[in-house]
Amino acid sequence: MGNALVSVQIIPKTKNGEDVIPYVDEAIAVIDKSGVRYEVNPLETTMEGNLSDLFKVIEQMNERMIEMGSSNVISQIKVLYQPAGIEMDQLTEKYKG
């Protein structure tokens, strides 16, 4: 169990205004390769783990967007930090039926 939940939405500025979905797919691939637990939702992806590790993943996501040709990236981030530990299921289990 990690000490944080971090939701992130990546908004890359593409070179010629092209579709950002391939960029978002690549950002999610970065998360997947990291090995952290995550859930993709319609407007953001939530990761679970240790706060410092999750921030490193976000840094890698941003760097990958630049490697793909983005001139800049906006990352909208929400953080729940709970030193005693937290899991996504603790916040959503009552809604799953």
From TrEMBL:
Pfam families: Thiamine_BP (PF01910). Gene3D superfamilies: 3.30.70.930. It comes from the Bacteria. One of its GO terms (cellular component) is cytosol. The lineage of its organism: Bacteria, Bacillati, Bacillota, Bacilli, Bacillales. Belongs to the UPF0045 family. InterPro entries: MTH1187/YkoF-like, Thiamine_BP, UPF0045_domain. It comes from Rossellomorea aquimaris. This is Thiamine-binding protein. SUPFAM superfamilies: MTH1187/YkoF-like. Residues 6-95 form the Thiamine-binding protein domain.
